Amino acid sequence: MKQLLTVILAMCMPVVASAAGGGGHLDSMEPDLSDQASLQRGAQIFTNYCMGCHSAEYSRYKRVAKDLGIPKELYEQNLIFTDARFGELMNIAMPEEQAASWFGTAPPDLTLTARVNGPDWLYSYLRAFYKDESRPHGVNNAVFDNVGMPHVMVNQGGLCAEPPHIGQEPEVDPSTGEVVGDDICDDWAIEGSMEPKEFDRAMYDLTNFLVYLGEPALMDRKRIGVYVLIFIGVFFIFAYLLNREYWKDIH
């Protein structure tokens, strides 16, 4: 019996370790794929601001619309800006060779970026741009140093004059009693049309959508997983009772 419990605990340890893992100096972001409104807003941001350069070639418009509860006509009118058909993959018109020539390297496909980098990294990266005149696009990123991507949502989110406070908890200055690091930027090079908290929410929605995009069946897998665990729990009771019956006469 002790050996069986040891095996079960050993099987659970990698899952716990994976759930507890995460990069340092990042802001925490907990995805919620049950929040359909958040996913719809994220899809809108992704289509309007990301798909000019980045594809999602392992996903289909039709599947996204179905999962997010967006009617076909509404999706085609507002979230497909090319002549692509509703059932096609989410590719972009920009040729990879030309993109590499223009940007130095072709912008990566974003279908699996949340699975590769993790939601904390993505959420922090999207909010970590700051002014840096030494860079080709005039911006750098506190999470991804020497980033080659421009800050495409600068008009909405603004641009920090210095590296923003990412992964830092607000502190109280003992000399003045003022809260330091409560705002993401100490000074703004460009002020956006959104309030900082509003922009944070928009980047949460975008990250939430990218997490969904990386594994559309995640919610179904979690739901099925609950039933599997219940089955294993019930089966364990019968296995234990049967084991005790087999060994009760052996001393």
UniProtKB/TrEMBL annotation:
- Give the subcellular location: Membrane
Which positions fall inside the Cytochrome c domain? 37-217
A single Pfam family it belongs to is: Cytochrom_C1
The record's remark on the cofactor is: Binds 1 heme c group covalently per subunit.
Residues involved in heme c binding:
C50, C53, H54
Q: Where are the transmembrane segments?
A: 224-242
Q: Which UniProt keywords apply?
A: Heme, Iron, Membrane, Metal-binding, Signal, Transmembrane, Transmembrane helix
> Any keyword Cell membrane?
no
**Named cofactor requirement(s):** heme c
GO molecular function (one) = electron transfer activity
Cellular component GO terms held in the UniProt record: membrane
Instruction: Give the range the annotation lists for the signal sequence.
Output: 1-19
- Gene3D superfamilies assigned to the protein according to its UniProt record, in alphabetical order: Cytochrome c-like domain, Cytochrome c1, transmembrane anchor, C-terminal
Query: Which domain of life does this protein belong to?
Result: Bacteria
The name under which this protein is listed is Cytochrome c1
Q: Which organism is it from?
A: Vreelandella halophila
